[in-house]
Amino acid sequence: MSTPQQVRRVAVVTGAGSGIGREVARQMLADGYRVALAGRREAQLKETAGGSPDSLVVPCDVTRPGDVERLFETARQQWGRIDVLFNNAGVFGPAAGVDEISLEDWNATLAVNLTGSMLCAAAAVRAMKAQEPQGGRIINNGSISAHSPRPRTVAYTVTKHAMTGLTKSIELDGRGYGITCGQIDIGNTATEIMDTIGVGSGALQADGSRRIEPMFPVADAARAVLMMANMPDSASVGSVVVTAAGMPFIGRG
C-alpha cells in the first residue's frame, strides 16, 4: 500500500511510454513523486504524463550513452536529485533458438535489455553518489525468464539472467553510498508484449504445444514496484517474483 511522501521524491522511469513502465510512472505521479519519463516515442510519453506538473518528458534511446546522460542531467537540473530509478526499458527480441538467431538480432536485444540497463544504472549511481544526502534506490525490471526460459527466447532469456547479476553487483557496490538495488520478476501481466508471444491466444510451451495462459492486470504489477520504491531507507527489497495465478512457471514444461 502506498504511503504519502514526507519529501517530494524524484524518480526516473525508462520505457514509460507503454506497458509496465507507463503504469508505474502513473502510479508514482499519483503517489506524489516527481517523475522523469523516458522512452523513444515522445507522443506516448506525453500521454503517460497526462499533463501532470510533476512529470518531465525526456525522449531517450537507452542504447545511446549521450541520451542516457542527458536524461539524468535533465532530471537533476529540474529537481536537484534522483531518488529512484525504475530500470524498465526492454524488448522481447526474436523468436529463435541459439542455432538460428542472427548476430544482428542478438546484439540488438542485448543493446537494449542489458547495455541500456547498465548505462541507466551507471548514470543513476553517479547522480546518487554526488547528491546530498547521498543515496537512492534502483529497481531493475527482470522477468520470469530470469528464472525459467520460454522456448525460442535465447537472447531475451540471456539478458534477463544477466540482469540478476547486474542487480546483485549494484547492490553490493552501492552499500557504502546508501544506494540499494532490487529486481522485480513479473510473469504474464497484461501488456503488449504478452500479445507478441501469444499468451492470450496460445503461447508456445516446452513440449511444443500451445496454451492460453492466465494474465493479471498491469496495475497490480505496478503496485509491487511502488511497494519496493516506498520502502524506508533502512530496508531493501532484493528480489520480488509476481506472476499470474496459475501460469506455467513453477514446474514449467
From TrEMBL:
InterPro entries: NAD(P)-bd_dom_sf, SDR_fam. Pfam families: adh_short (PF00106). The keyword DNA damage does not apply. Keywords: Oxidoreductase. SUPFAM superfamilies: NAD(P)-binding Rossmann-fold domains (SSF51735). The keyword Membrane does not apply. This is NAD(P)-dependent dehydrogenase (Short-subunit alcohol dehydrogenase family). It comes from Pseudarthrobacter niigatensis. The lineage of its organism: Bacteria, Bacillati, Actinomycetota, Actinomycetes, Micrococcales.
